[in-house]
Amino acid sequence: MLARLNRLARRTAAALALASALASGLAAPAAAAPALWAIRDADSTIYLFGTVHVLRPDTAWRTPGIEAALAESDELVIEVLGADDPAAARPLILKYGVSTDGPLSSKLSPQDQARLEAAAAAAGLPPQALEPLRPWLAAMSLSIAPVIKAGYRVGSGVETVLTAEARAKGRPVEGLETLEQQIGFFAGLPPETELAMLKSTLEEVDEGPAKLDALVKAWADADLDLLEREFVTEMREKHPEVYEALAARRNRDWADQLKAKLAGSGVSFVAVGAGHLVGPDSVQAELAKRGVTVERR
Predict the structure, then answer these.
(1) Cα separation of 198 and 190, whole Å?
(2) 125 falls in which pLDDT band (50, 70, 90)?
(3) At what angle do helices 179-187 and 2-16 cross, to 10 degrees?
(4) Distance of alpha carbon 77 from alpha carbon 175, whole angstroms
(5) C-beta separation of 181 from 80 below 8 A
(6) What domain range is 201 assigned to?
(7) With contact defined as beta carbons under 8 Å apart, do 25 and 213 qualify?
(8) Concatenated DSSP letters for 103-158?
(9) Residue 9, pLDDT above cutoff 70
(10) How far apart are the first and last CA of the chain?
(11) Looking at the 3D structure of the chain, how many domains does it have?
(12) Which of 39, 82, 194, 290 would you label with 168, given CA atoms 20 to 30 Å apart?
C-alpha cells in the first residue's frame, strides 16, 4: 500500500504541474518570445509572466526581456510551493483523493471501464491501482503518463527552473496558494463534474502530447488568441464548473493578492500558468476591474 501511495504521489505531483492547462514535441523555436507584462506604481514593479508547467529539456523560452526582469526582481512568486514534491502530496492524496463511496469501477459504464483499463495499461498502472481513487485523481494520474512518455518533464518546467535559480541566489520564493488549496480545487468539484472530467480524460488521453505540443508553440510565439481558445474557451464552454474552480476563481484571488503586493515596494517576478493570463477572466482583466493597469512588455 505504501509503495502504491508513493507512486500515486509522484504521479499526482507531476500531474498538478499540468493542472492549469488541464492537458493531458515540438520544442519551442530558437526565437521564442513568450509574453511578459508589467505592473508599476511609484515604488513597486510586478512582472507577470505566463508559463508552461512541464517542458521538454531542450525547449527555448528565455529572452533578453525576461532575463532583465528576473535580474531586476527581489523575489519570485509562483502559483504554489511544493507542487512537484511527492512527500508533500502524499498526505493530501489520502485526505482528498481516496474514494469513500465505492470503487472507481462502480461509477463507470462498461465502455468507460474498458477505456480506463486501456489507459491504465498504457500508463504502466494495473487497473486495480486506480480502484480506490476518486475520479479527479484517476484522471490526473492517467493524463500525465503520455506527456512524460513524449519527453516532457516537470523538472524542465518554467517554475521549477526559476525556483531553483532564485534559491541559489538567496532570493525568496512565495506561493499564491498552498498545495492543499490547489488539490482542494479538484476535490471540491461536484461528483458529476468530477466524473465528467475523468470521462473526458479517457476520451482524449492519447491526444495529450499533440495538444501540449501545440500549446507550447503558441506560448513560445506569444499567440495569445490561440492560447485563449485552447486554455480558456474550450474549458469555459464544455466544463463551466471546472473553469470556474480552476481558472476564474483563482484569477480573482490572485488579482487581489497582486494589488495588495503593489501597495508595498520592491520588484517581484510573478510566474503563473499561461492560461491564467488570457481570456475575459484573466488576471489582467481582474486587475483592471480593481483599477490596476497592466502593460505588455
Answers:
(1) 13
(2) confident
(3) 90
(4) 6
(5) yes
(6) 2-296
(7) yes
(8) -GGGGS-HHHHHHHHHHHHHHT--HHHHTTB-HHHHHHHHHHHHHHHTT-BGGGSH
(9) no
(10) 50
(11) 1
(12) 39
